[in-house]
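Backbone-to-sequence.
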């Protein structure tokens, strides 16, 4: 299995000995040794994954990198966060997924009726299995615990990913900016309940569901 490690906070180094990884297309910044690159359309599993992504707008252009040596990845100088999965499922915004072990299964899942973050529709990307994934964030990501006693409410523009036995729902109405007098239009929040982790970034995407 490929070895993921950070060089600084904005560059991912992946050591491979005949292994393969899947990475965001165009994210390779350097490599040594012998590497082969192959573009993968869709990023999901087979034809069904490709069609699902076209329909839902959960866009993800992926390349497979395989070989012997080290490959370095980065994405617009964003911060990189490593997540290790042990047979679990990670839900992540497609734009925040940089690289995964090739053995991890990727796909899409329906997340409910909501206003959507730019370009991501009502679906989100899933990563499942045993291995590592690298997520990018605008600023250092914060990992927040969700417990059955303490549900968590998140601004959708700051949401990156979540994992664990977590249920999410979408609530329209008051948002964080509304309290500051900056809100406008129809807006919503994401509420997480259960037991797991939620990853958020200290910055907000532009959304199409009003000012949030």
């Amino acid at each position: 299995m490929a070895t993921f490690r950070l060089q600084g906070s904005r560059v991912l180094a992946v050591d491979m000995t005949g292994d393969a990884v899947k990475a965001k297309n165009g994210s390779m910044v350097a490599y040594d040794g012998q590497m082969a690159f192959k573009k993968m359309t869709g990023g999901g599993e087979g034809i069904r994954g490709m069609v699902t992504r076209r329909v839902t707008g959960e866009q993800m252009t992926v390349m497979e990198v395989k070989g012997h040596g080290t490959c370095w990845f980065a994405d617009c100088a964003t911060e990189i966060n490593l997540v290790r999965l042990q047979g679990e499922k990670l839900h992540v915004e497609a734009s925040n997924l940089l690289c995964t072990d090739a053995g991890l299964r990727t796909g899409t899942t329906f997340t409910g009726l909501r206003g959507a973050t730019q370009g991501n529709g009502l679906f989100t990307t899933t990563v499942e299995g045993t291995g590592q994934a690298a997520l990018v964030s605008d600023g250092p990501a914060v990992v927040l615990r969700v417990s059955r006693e303490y549900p968590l409410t998140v601004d959708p523009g700051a949401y990156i990913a979540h994992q664990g036995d977590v249920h999410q729902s979408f609530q329209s109405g008051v948002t964080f900016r509304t309290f500051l007098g900056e809100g406008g239009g129809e807006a919503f929040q994401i509420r997480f309940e259960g037991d797991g982790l939620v990853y958020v970034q200290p910055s907000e995407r532009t959304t199409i569901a009003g000012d949030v």
